[in-house]
Amino acid sequence: MADQVVGVVGAGIVGLAIARELTRRMPGARVVVVDKEARVAAHQTGHNSGVVHAGIYYRPGSLKAELCTRGRALLREYCQEREIPYEECGKLVVAVRRDELGRLEALASRAGENTVPGLRRVGPGEIKDIEPYATGLSALWSPKTAITDYVRVAESFARDVTEAGGEVLLRFPVDRVTPSAGGRLDIGSGSQSLSVDRLVVCAGIQSDLVAGLAGDVATPRIIPFRGEYMLINPDKSDMVRGLIYPVPDPRYPFLGVHFTRRVDGTVEVGPNAVLATAREGYRRGNVNLRELAGIASYPGMWRMAARHWRTGVREMYGSVSKRAYMRAARRYVPEIGPGDVVRAGSGVRAQALDRNGALVDDFRIHQLGAVTAVRNAPSPAATSSLAIAEHVADALNA
Questions:
Q1: CB atoms within 10 A of CB 165
Q2: Which of 111, 22, 24 is nearest to 69 (CA)?
Q3: What are phi and psi of 312, to 5 degrees?
Q4: Could you tell me which of 143, 153, 127 has the C-alpha nearest to residue 88?
Q5: Using CB atoms within 10 A as the burial measure, which of 9, 148, 265, 306 is most buried?
Q6: Residues with Cβ < 8 Å from 162, sequence gap 6 or more?
């Protein structure tokens, strides 16, 4: 591996974690991260909720289940070493209707198979003990679910890369990947070019496009979903001590609108999930006609819409109406209503969609000769980032 050059496209938390791991495993190699933005963690990493997941939701035996469990332990240790905020504030997953109790039981069974630490079932009285303003029939309590600052983590990973002799090249939007002499690849950005022996694509919202430049298959296609947040006014933020989540609908990879305490002490409600009209469509007014045409022309998009249009309409209504947005949230904390929140930031989830209209749930990583493409890495990718890095590095060094 000495004298090799390994390129990593994407300076989000996953790309930087992989680059960091490669500098540790391949001390004689040159590791170079490129990203089109002027800073690291500019997109999904910098717009997520900061939650460190404990592994409750993921199908046993899946990459998500395996890498979330390993990644949480690694991330906790890393944050402690680097003095990055890491608070085990705990999470309640609350059933408020009787028809949710069966799903809650199934979720408890799944979490047990995933050996989620400290998880236990609690009733209405203990719900109040944990979250005095919350209400529900039954809940799962996950005391080891935590919160952190993923931007600080990503920035720390970037420093680790450069201190180990690697490079992070910003303002480098990749527009071509072409074969060159000796089996190498030329990574191009306008007049700039970088020659590499191996390439790892971790381009998030652009992952299918960049992987396509490197010769990967067209599916799954990335469909952007905007997640919008509300911020609870300071006079009521103390009503939420940690994390309060609904029982998720197993048909969707989204977890539903929930209450999230951040490491800075603020509390958010959200996110929802509405189809974005641009890959980086953080606001309703962000429209990219070319990207929108690409979404509309994909057969999988129409198949998904035919199955889930009612949910889509409901999410869109909540996007434009604060009252509708908070109606679901008030089932869990009744004393926080639309007058107690203001619109806050939003993020865009890079959701992979197969051609048959199926929302891809698990992490998906493609290997194509000298190219490794991380094609689907939604939540809990930030939690799992150090474990994903190990997984990819194992494949590169196999």
A1: 12
A2: 111
A3: -60, -45
A4: 143
A5: 9
A6: 168
How is residue 165 written in tokens?
A: 């002799």
What separation in angstroms does the CA of 250 have from each of 58, 66, 87, 359, 382? 10, 19, 28, 11, 21
Number of residues written out for the chain = 398
pLDDT for position 181: 85
Q: Tokens standing for 333?
A: 């904390």
Q: Report which of 73, 63, 62, 84 is spatially closest to residue 116, judged by C-alpha positions.
A: 73
Q: Is 1-85+146-220+360-398 in CATH node 2.40.30.170?
A: no
pLDDT at position 397 is 80
The C-alpha atoms of residue 375 and residue 352 are separated, in whole angstroms, by 7
Residues of the chain with pLDDT under 50: none
Q: What are the residue boundaries of the structural domains of the chain, listed by start?
A: 1-85+146-220+360-398
Dist. CA 54–CA 146, nearest whole Å: 8
The neighbouring-strand residues paired with 351 are 223
Nearest CA among 366, 331, 368 for reference residue 207: 366
CA distance 98 to 101: 5
Q: Write out the two tokens for 185.
A: 């690849």
State residue 304's pLDDT score.
Answer: 86
Cα(344)–Cα(324) distance, rounded to whole angstroms?
Answer: 16
Which pLDDT does position 284 carry in this prediction? 87
Q: Which tokens in the block code for residue 22?
A: 């490669």
C-beta separation of 150 from 48 below 8 A: yes
Do residues 248 and 255 lie in contact, with contact meaning Cβ atoms separated by under 8 Å?
yes
DSSP E strand boundaries for 236-385: 243-246, 258-261, 267-270, 274-275, 341-353, 364-368, 371-376
How many Å from the N-terminal Cα to the C-terminal Cα in the chain? Answer: 12
